[in-house]
Amino acid sequence: MMGVRKIHTALAGLPALALLAVAATTTLHAQTTTTTTLAPRLALRALTNGDISNFKLPSTTQVSGGLGTVALGEPLYLEVQIDATIPSKQIAGVIWTLTTKPSGSKATLVASPLGSNVPVAEPSDALIYQVAGRQLLQPDIAGAYAITAVVTAGSSGSTTLSQTYIAGTYVGVAVCAKCHSGNLAANMVPSWQTTEHATMFQNGINGVDGTGYGANCISCHTVGYDANNTIPNGGFSSLAKQLGWTFPSVLQSTNFASMPASLQAVSNIQCENCHGPGSEHANGGGDPIAISLPSNSGACSQCHDEPTHHIKSAACAERAQVA
To answer: Which pTM does this prediction carry?
Structure first.
């Protein structure tokens, strides 16, 4: 009971407006404006290195786990999906509106880089849905971003969909551990520490795993690595650029210890790799709605779909569904 009271006390400080803003991250608020058989949904598409290769997208295309909690400068690949049985010639298109964004934000909805040759991400979903329209949003300021999409498809009707996404910055596992070590929330850190994820980068750069570890490995072995992102967001690549850190020329046991502490804090594969940036969750009294719980293979596949040597997406997806 003491733990429950602590959580309630922490959440009580979260402004009501913020709670309303983040509440939409886990529930799709869809409104049917006319009678429709569209069976629509506003979804986020995960994008993997395998997708970039298979669909011949530019090398600068950013990878995404398809999470509703996203870091500054990272992509939200938005798509309206409707019933796959509706003839494509009936699809009149989608009218997109960015209805809410944080004060001072200059982010806008732009055309998605994903063409018509890029299908719905999950194979099982592709049997049920087709894409009616796509857009891209890259948040630039922490806070809530509300999207509205009006989709029309001939005799099948039209529908207005809305959803809110949360943008934030990376904080590192030490911040997560303040609650997730059994203090205010589930004791998740000790079990994570026993996995290879917890030491993947550290062992690699220290030469524990042999001499084959290189700079091209760290994009998946650190938190928030995105070389194509230009907005500081607390991720590894962003901090490394600010600090002037470069990958060592020799793998040796002192490499990790000699790194700046702030960079160590976002090294290895941590909570935020799978759940998105934690600043709004941590600063918002631990509200669970301000962090993502992956429900598809995207969180795993953003790293585990790396042709030609690191393809484990199917196994990851199966484990996620079982869990």
So the answer is: 0.85
